[in-house]
Amino acid sequence: MSDRVRTAILISGRGSNMAALAKAAEKPDFPAQINLVISNIPEAEGLQKAADMGIPVAALDHTHFNNRRTFDEEMQKHLLANNIELICCAGYMRILSPWFVSQWPDRILNIHPSLLPKYKGLNTHQRALDSGDKEHGCTVHFVNEALDDGQIIDQKTIPIAPNDTSESLAKKVLKLEYPLYSKSLYRVAKNIIASK
Ligand code: GRF
After folding, report:
1. Ligand 1 atom 5: the closest Cα is on which residue?
2. What confidence score (pLDDT) does residue 93 get?
3. Ligand 1 atom 7: the closest Cα is on which residue?
4. Taking the mean position of all CA atoms in its chain, how far away is CA 24?
5. CATH for 28
6. Residue ranges around ligand 1 (CB below 6 Å)
7. Residue numbers of the domain that contains 17
8. pTM of the full predicted structure?
């Protein structure tokens, strides 16, 4: 059995961060491996990307479940069946149930397109512009029960240019997200290995 940290990525859409993490994890010295990608949206573009990269995928349609907890219990079965040790949310657009979060203390990461604690939730780029901010960026953090709120692992900042729009900022920030998330996963996985 490999000593790399078995990692699952949760997605809901495009999956470009997922693909960046999976690419980073292809390097032989990377301390995590991507063993499973789960989407709550069966049509998510990222599922095909993951399958094309040879990663096992699971599509769990959340509309088929009565509530958040029963959906998360199903997700948990897939994670345990694949011996997953660490979870990365990457454009996963569902709030995890407190029960699920309690099963994975310090083992769920998320990337958020703002300099947390600023702009939790949606429309982060427009909100940064509307506030007249001079800087914007992205954050990788551990997930706790509250939205976009857990301990910050790392952040990357860029200046906001006078002609920036929500779209231009989204593009610039997304480019920062890939290396930031890979670096954070590297660090967290290394720590898990060191603590074994
Ligand atoms: C990213 O901006 C991420 O920060 C946010 O949702 C977006 C997901 O994009 N949580 P992708 O699906 O990784 O392309």
Report:
1. 91
2. 96
3. 91
4. 14
5. 3.40.50.170
6. 11, 13-18, 46, 90-91, 111-113, 138, 174, 177
7. 5-195
8. 0.97
Q: Which of 174, 181, 182, 184 to mutate to test the pocket of ligand 1 (most atoms within 8 A of CB)?
A: 174
pLDDT tens digits along 116-157 = 999 999 999 999 999 999 999 999 999 999 999 999 999 999
Q: What is the domain count for the chain? A: 1
What whole-number distance in Å separates Cα of residue 88 and Cα of residue 79? 12
Rounded Cα–Cα distance for residues 137 and 170 (Å):
9
Distance from Cα 148 to the centre of ligand 1, integer Å: 13
Q: What is the pLDDT of residues 159-195, one digit of tens each?
A: 999 999 999 999 999 999 999 999 999 999 999 999 9
How far is C-alpha 149 from the chain's CA centre? 14
> What are the residues whose beta carbons fall under 8 Å from the beta carbon of 89, sequence distance 6 or more?
9, 10, 96, 108, 109, 110, 111, 143
How much distance in Å is there from the Cα of 167 to the middle of ligand 1?
13
Catalytic residues: 112
The structure tokens listed for 166 are 């929500």
